[in-house]
User: Fold this.
Amino acid sequence: MSEITKNSLESSLRQLKCHFTWNLIERENSVDDFEDRVCNQIEFQNSEFKATTYNILAYIKHLRGQNKAALEYLQQAEELIQLEHTDQAEIRSLVTWGNYAWVYYHMDRLSEAHSYLDKVKQVCQKFSSPYRINNSPEIDCEEGWTRLKCGGKFNERAKVCFEKALEKKPKNPEFSSGLAIASYRLDKWPPNQNPINPLRQAIRLNPDNQYVKVLLALKLQELNEEGEGENIVEEALEKAPHATDVLRSAAKFYRKKGALDKAIEMLGKTLECMPNNAYLHYYTGCCYRAKVLQIQCERYENKDKLPELIEQGVDHLKQADELNVNLSNVCSYLACLYAHANQYEEADHYFQKEFSKELNPVLKQRLHLRYGNFQLYQMRCEEKAIHHFMEGVKINQGTKEKEKMKNKLQRIAKMRLSQNEADSEALRILRVLDELNGEMQQAVEDSKRCLGSASLLPSASIAEIGDGE
Assistant:
């Protein structure tokens, strides 16, 4: 195959539809972040889509320079497709064969890369499809599942993939399930998307998909139809008692309901199958923390249970932190639990650890509130509390945490002034708060003026709007 040049081969490979041409890791922080989201963070279908997972894992191994391991995963994917899609094995293997071709290309095994490229061409010709197989709903479906598995910004594109597949086969249960899951994830963004109808349609076409049923239950819960939702969850758990995606979603349902013991039970069953999943330990720790806060609000009842609950919460949150040091909130939750146990040195250690992370403005604001409260109420250090509340309110984010810190600062200032009318620190606090309120009021007035001016201007053409972007 000496006549095959790498450049001409690459040009042909770029026409394939597979993980190497889907830009799955574009603008990702790192391969580690990508792998963590795919393998741990995103709850997903279980046994039905292992071939999809193996293809993604093969791509990750390639990104890490482990091409031999990538080939092993592709072989597993190919074998699964042969077992699960006997009547569609060829067309269902096209993505896997495309990945094979790319891996061999990167290993400089050009003859083998060309061999897999030929296999794709032959199947396309057999099914009278264009070379890029744009008209294959099965390939659109596979891309949709892959993007759902990647989550985040890929959900919208996943929805488009399933919609395209359904245009060709509108009654296909698998395509309908994919669209329902994508619609559920996109319920909040873009706005005005209601996943109820896609979810119900998917269940009608595939009543054995218990994961989709629990997603419907979660949506019904949001719509204040919790009773119907709980019946659906119970039915799903009865029919799929060991499915991890069903258990994780059921735990979310019970946590929102306030049935924390039930949520912990569901998460515990999931952890039996996935003991090294940081997110499961994190959610379990959050449930124990919620139980601690619940009991703290009670005057006398169940106080004897606090030490054990705190210990359980700390254990799970520590495991989450050890498994994934970048998880936000873990260390501040640990700090709060240690504070409840009067272990202030440990609490301060974990607060500082959370401050050392790269946090977005909202999380940083929330952390300043928590640490300020710790300094004010546990350490009795008003000076440090003021410092952190001030740092929090200076962050340009209009959140409930910011309002809480402003109120606390006002109360502190008024208390100090009631004891000393010339208290310089109290006067400084009020001056800063006035400046912040003035800036906010000015921003509101500027916004109103802009809106008023805009109403007097002629509407821009599409071309002018485009030029201004």
